[in-house]
Design brief:
The protein has 387 residues and is α+β, with helices and mostly antiparallel strands. It has 4 domains: 31 residues; 76 residues, conserved putative lor/sdh protein from methanococcus maripaludis s2 fold; 153 residues, RNA polymerase II/Efflux pump adaptor protein, barrel-sandwich hybrid domain (OB fold (Dihydrolipoamide Acetyltransferase, E2P)); 97 residues. Helix content is 32%, strand content 34%. The protein contains 5 helices and 20 strands. Helix 2 packs antiparallel against helix 4 and helix 3 runs antiparallel to helix 4. The longest helix has 47 residues. It is flat.
Length: 387
């Protein structure tokens, strides 16, 4: 009897274990599979701009005994001067105006040309050949069947072939015309924006608050970008900085250019307010004055600056998305693709980088608008995955 009781206990325990395992197993099977794809942030390949910059150093405060001379960025005839000596002006206040008539006419003409180019692009985009090509291809196939059956002569097949070849040539020409019309439309739109910008620049504005200490022109005088128009000075030198610039770089900088300033653990944004004409013979450096220093910053504080002198448009990605292959030296990005099972995979792709700044790299070839790339951690993807 004791042996039978032991067998019964063992059987009961085995039954309990089997029931527990049966209840747990479905839950484990129901757990969704984990996405084992690499977890890295993504960025979209898009149209954008890469800034052209000049790195300079200097100090907080205005140059001792100097003034900021401002000039129009365009050539033309002075229409009027809006300020007088000793007048205090705020940032953005108009100081003088050029006669905007020739620039306004150019802007109107560019606007009309852009509208015409857009209309031409829309007309060229109408597909007039694909339907005819399909019909003629079907006719060619029919003639071939009839020829194989001995119904028609070879010349009928050859005639149909000639018609299809002509259709394809016409379709190719139409595609070229569409591409040309689109390019012309884009160029006309850019020219329109440029001429509108020129109209805006016929007004000389104060880049920062200050006092008018010099007026060098009068109404009717013809000036160019090298002609000083108005001089401003800040009595306390608040909010300004002085930067040293090599003489060879002066031609790239214009009043109003944006500047990123770094000083005393702070960063701020400013503008070039003027270029001092004197060059230090000992150093060969000229002087820029810039606005944008935070109020209360001690004069003489060392400052690092980046002057933005232009921009190049194109396809851009974050600079951190581009890595250099240590074996070949080629530039690589990792393009994200989601597979049918929902997992995310990355494939390396060689790209050509032709410009970059602190944030973005411009891609000349290798990527397309709308693709997603690994924006950070791409160097980890370069290692063999073991797949």
């Amino acid at each position: 009897m004791k042996y039978g009781a032991r067998l019964a206990v063992v059987a009961l325990v085995a039954l309990i274990v089997a029931v527990v395992l049966w209840r747990i197993a479905p839950r484990r099977l129901a757990e969704p599979p984990q996405d084992r794809g690499p977890q890295v942030p993504l960025a979209l390949v898009r149209e954008g701009s890469v800034e052209q910059t000049i790195a300079l150093v200097g100090r907080v405060g205005s140059p001792a005994g100097t003034q900021t001379k401002l000039a129009f960025p365009l050539s033309g005839s002075v229409q009027r001067v809006d300020v007088s000596l000793g007048e205090r002006v705020e940032a953005g206040a108009p100081l003088a105006h050029l006669d905007a008539t020739p620039y306004a006419i150019a802007a109107q003409q560019a606007q009309a040309e852009a509208a015409a180019a857009r209309a031409g692009s829309a007309a060229a985009s109408v597909d007039r050949t694909s339907v005819k090509l399909r019909v003629d291809e079907a006719e060619l196939a029919r003639q071939r069947r009839l020829y194989a059956a001995g119904v028609v002569a070879l010349k009928d097949v050859q005639s149909a072939q000639g018609i299809v070849a002509a259709d394809r040539a016409e379709a190719s020409g139409a595609q070229a015309q569409r591409s040309q019309a689109q390019a012309q439309s884009q160029a006309a739109t850019a020219h329109q924006a440029s001429t509108a910008y020129d109209v805006e620049r016929t007004t000389l504005r104060a880049p920062a608050a200050g006092v008018v200490v010099g007026i060098f022109v009068q109404a009717g005088q013809v000036v160019d970008p090298t002609t000083p128009v108005v001089a401003l000075s800040s009595a306390a030198g608040q909010g300004s900085a002085t930067l040293d610039i090599p003489v060879a770089e002066i031609g790239r900088v214009r009043p109003g250019d944006r500047v990123t300033l770094r000083y005393g653990g702070s960063t701020s944004q400013g503008r070039v307010t003027g270029i001092a004409p004197a060059v230090d013979p000992a150093t060969g450096l000229a002087v820029l004055t810039v606005s944008g220093v935070a109020p209360g910053t001690a004069g003489g504080t060392p400052i690092d600056a980046t002057v933005i002198v232009g921009a190049q448009r194109g396809l851009v990605v974050p600079r951190s998305a581009v890595i250099e292959d240590p074996q070949t030296g080629a530039h690589l990005v990792f393009v994200a693709e989601r597979h049918a099972d929902g997992t995310l995979h990355f494939g390396s792709r060689t790209v050509t980088v032709d410009a970059q700044d602190d944030r973005y790299a411009r891609i000349a070839s290798g990527l397309h608008v709308g693709e997603r790339v690994a924006s950070q951690g791409a160097i980890d993807l370069l290692a063999p995955s073991g797949e």
